[in-house]
Amino acid sequence: MSILGHKTTTLLPAHVRPRRKAIFFSMEKTSSLTLALLAVIVVVACSGIVAAVKGAPLRNQYVVWSACGMLVGLATTILLIGRIVTHRSLAVVERHLRDLSRSGTLTTLDHSMPGELQPVMDALSAYVLHVHTRMDELRLQKKELDIQMRLAEADRQSIEAIIISISDAVLVIDSYGELILANTAAEQLLGFHARQWRHRPVERVLEDATLVSLLKDARSPDEQSGRRQVEYTVLRDGRTQTFNITLSRVTDAAGHPRGVVAVFHDITREKEIAQIKSDFVSVVSHELRTPLSSIKAYVEMLVDGEAHDENTRRHFYQIIETETNRLQRLINNILNISKIESGVVEVHYRSLQVNEVVGEVAAMMMPQARDKNITVETDLDENLPAIRADRDMVHQAVLNLASNAVKYTPSGGCVRFITSTDENGRHVAITVRDNGMGIKTQDLPRIFDKFYRGQDGASTASGTGLGLSLVKQIVETVHKGEISVASEPGAGTTIVLRFPLLTD
Q1: Do 26 and 115 meet the contact criterion of CB atoms below 8 Å apart?
Q2: pLDDT by residue (tens digit) across 195-238?
Q3: Pairing outcome for strands 375-379 and 414-421
Q4: Long-range residue pairs from 279-287, CB within 8 A, at least 24 positions apart, any chain
Q5: How far is C-alpha 306 from the chain's CA centre?
Q6: CA distances in angstroms from 459 to 408, 422, 455, 462, listed in the order given
Q7: Which of 63, 405, 424, 476 is the most exposed place for a label (fewest CB within 10 A)?
Q8: Strand 257-266's sheet: what is its strand order?
Q9: 213 vs 207: CA distance, rounded Å
């Protein structure tokens, strides 16, 4: 490989190159001749001086000085020839060097090259060969580095693609505290664009000082653990979200910190589920304890013989039966909701005429409504199309609504059942409307929660708070329908169940 043209050449060592013919007027010979002539001139000049001093004949002195002049002329000629030879030799060397600079190849020395320059040219040839060898080595190293760089770039792109595709938010901070990578989830969570803020200090990218402090502490050399987890809470769109942040410090081979990788795992739902489970256990325990306590108390009184007559015993038995039925309803509702939520409930879909189910429920509620002097009315659409549904579940949902309507409607009120097709013609609607106590505005968003009962409702009538939750599960989860509620305190409540029409 050459210095400029990157060509590979082979230079012959000096001992294997062909020997050149000797040149008569070489630099060494001209120098030797010149020195010899100068010595002769000195000798002749000295002889002339001696002859002049001794009074030699003029003819002899003339001969001596003539010879001295001729020798001086000859020496001058030899010096000029030597200068020409030197210039020519230097021109040859210059030509070879220019050829080397153009092609990177040191051409074979021609016969006009003086022998004195042979060692110089041999040394130059050896140096050029060394440079070629070194360049070849550097070229191989460059190829290896290029391969390593391509592999590193491919690895970087693969890692970056993996990080970007992760659903959890990921931030990568370098040893200087600058943002070098963030995926889409992190951009959406923290509200910035990674391309605009890349290689910017993280404290300028993030507004949350707590999060910035966590990242700063994680990349500190004083941090004992290279990986730790912390909980992080942020208010987003009016909703509190909780994240489990995994902070992993990246170090080099010497153990020096090179950056931090932060992974944000959203545990909001897990927290909510844990809270729901805790609340569920607490409420169920309370609801179970109440009837069980009553049953236990009256059983103990019966065992202790405190019921001295038949009427008292019958009263105790009726209370035990009532509390047992309440306990049974509670357990059945819990089991039904659990089955629906877990997807293991058996659903028997078939073509169903809604008017039949609503008529049956209205007839069942007549005795209870009559006892409270409540009027039951029905407005059923005779041309109502069929739906595909489970009859028993639809019956249970309508019965729960009707029971609540009668329970929370005072004497002299009215409960009305209406069936119709909604405006878009895609659903059959079952409406249960009453003019009872109604539901407060703050209670409306939670009436379908398990065990939730408004304060006014709890003081008016007994219940478990599972009826409407079961209705919601039957309509929305099982039948993919819709449920809506409209209520005004003191003016009554209207609940509408919408079921999809039967399709071929």
Answers
A1: yes
A2: 777 788 888 888 888 888 888 888 776 655 677 888 888 877 77
A3: parallel
A4: 279/451, 280/450, 280/451, 283/450, 283/451, 283/465, 284/334, 284/451, 287/330, 287/451, 287/464
A5: 72
A6: 11, 36, 6, 8
A7: 424
A8: 179-182, 169-174, 257-266, 239-251, 227-236
A9: 11
Distance CA 344, CA 140 (A): 68
**Alpha-carbon span 196 to 183, nearest angstrom:** 13
Question: What does the angle CA 481 – CA 485 – CA 489 come to, to the nearest 5 degrees?
Answer: 170
Positive/negative CA dihedral, 371, 373, 374, 375: positive
CA within 13 Å, CB half, 224: 0
Q: Tens of pLDDT along 27-61?
A: 556 666 667 767 777 776 676 666 665 666 777 66
The pTM of the full predicted model, rounded to 2 decimals, is 0.46
DSSP string, 3-46: SSS-----PPPGGGSPPPPPPSS-HHHHHHHHHHHHHHHHHHHH
3-state helix, strand, coil in the chain (%, to 5): 55, 20, 25
SS3 call for 225: coil
Characterize 359-376 residue by residue with b for buried, 16 or more Cβ atoms within 10 angstroms of its Cβ, and e for exposed: eebbeebeeebeeeebeb
Q: Is 61 exposed, middle or buried (0-12, 13-18, 19+ CB in 10 A)?
A: middle
391-407 vs 354-371: helix crossing angle, rounded to 10: 30
| Token duo for residue 31 | 């120098």
CA distance 243 to 258: 25
Q: What's the alpha-carbon Rg for the chain, to the nearest Å?
A: 55
